Amino acid sequence: MLAQRRIPFTPLSLLLLLSTVCYSSIGGSHAFALPPRAQHHHLQHTSNTRISSESPVALSSRRASHTAHTEGNLTYVHNSNICETTEGVGQLSGYINVEDDSAFWFWFFESRNNPEKDPFTLWLNGGPGCTSMIGLFTEHGPCTMNEDQESTSINPYSWNNFTNILYLDQPFGAGYSTGVKVETSEDAAKYVWQFFQVLWTSGRFSQFKDRQFILATESFGAHFGPVFIKYFNEQNKRIDNDELDAEKVVVSHLMINDGKHDPLLQFQSLIDFVADAPGYGKLADDDVIDKITDALPDCADALQECESRRKTDKSDDLCNEAIIECVRNIYVPAIGDMNPDFLLIKDNHRDNFTDTHYGHFVRLDDVQRSIGADANSPNKLTFDQCDSSVKARFSKAGGTARSGLPDLADLVNSGMSVLIWAGDADLKANWLGVHDSMIQMEWTYNQTFKYTPLTNLTLGTETVAKYKIVDNLTFAVVHGAGHALAAYKPNVAQMIFSQFAANVPLHSDYRFLP
């Protein structure tokens, strides 16, 4: 039996529990994808990287430049030689200014494969309020941090092996983005729409507006993704009806890993998960399981009342109180002294790969100047992985207590290609809850999904995941992966996501070849 530890809490700390993320060292067998390269970028090193004249972003016969350029509301540095040092691969980083004196920070990397034809991917971390540099440096970006915390190495499993990818800090307050105090996913969507209006009309990015567009996200991104696409589609319809003069933002694919789709379903499934986690067994003592089981009815009543009064004046406070109650009485005792991001870490030990690795790096003055992150952000000396004030505003507005399934259902029913997946060692958004969310979601084939068995996904001789495909929805659970899925199993994550990006039905032993 695992000993359970009392965790002191306040209402704010309870709300932040579900957004705090710890990361493991990236280990395991790297059985496929590009071979590792021995390239390193040190702060004192100036690369003579050649930039392809055919590259949409990189400039011909130019060396890495740290000079900031301005095109209207777009301010950027091109080819900083930070992180991505692959020869001939371009990158841009900087700010896009939108209304209300607000500015989004972004970092864009060309595809290493075929930037002129490969898809465009937008990556958003969750939180709400977490920087997308989590995804960039610890999950699937072009580089990983070295132990000296001041240099990087090429990531052979980067998702820019097959897609052009943009990492965006949003909402304002996350990472290096700064501006108005957004409180809801619906409001955040309006500002991200403005971001793309600047992006698509710029000479640097206009060529991507007609590409296959993948919105990829995780955790609370289960709310961001569907809400953003819903708003984009509404605006696109206004453009079609000549009611709005703007650039369309057409998302064709949605990917959510380890999503917090529905809080009630996640709390319910957490009880089952700690009682008998598939592949891991019993995670909590009987007295803890009894305690959280007894607490479930009150939690369920509170969350259901929150949903039923979704449009009323008092619903935000009611929802905020509901999530506090459920976290206090179910989540905290269920987790005990385990690491909620990765249950294979025991006795409250932290992962070796933590914020201190990339966090130190992105706070360095030389790095900030090189990537153009010191121009607009007042937070450059206090860069936080996840901004607690953003999380608190969304929670106070009730957003963390409401279900994101209705908006996701609309997209699935529309025929959009959707990939929903999770790590089987994630306690924060356990995969049983994610799977049950797809069953409870009101879409055409939810009952077919319920009764479709999971199939083994293999890589070589190893079973690395299980999956099912029902119409336009693909579901997968990756063995040995935690909340930030790609950080733990980068080779498996690349195998799965590269098939999704290539519109290939998920299957075993798929090997991405550049």
UniProtKB/TrEMBL annotation:
Q: Where in the sequence does UniProt note compositional bias of the Polar residues kind? A: 45-55
What are the alphabetically sorted keywords of the record? Answer: Carboxypeptidase, Glycoprotein, Hydrolase, Protease, Signal
Q: Where is the signal peptide?
A: 1-31
Q: Which GO terms describe its biological process?
A: proteolysis
Any one Gene Ontology molecular-function term assigned to this protein's record: serine-type carboxypeptidase activity
Q: Which domain of life is it from?
A: Eukaryota
Q: What are the start and end residues of every segment in region (Disordered)?
A: 43-64
Can the keyword Hydrolase be found in this entry's annotation?
Answer: yes
Q: In the UniProt record, which is one GO cellular component term?
A: fungal-type vacuole
Q: Which Pfam family is an annotated match for this chain, by its short name?
A: Peptidase_S10
Give the similarity note: Belongs to the peptidase S10 family.
- Please report the name of this protein according to its UniProt entry: Alpha/beta-hydrolase
Q: What is the lineage of its organism?
A: Eukaryota, Fungi, Dikarya, Basidiomycota, Agaricomycotina
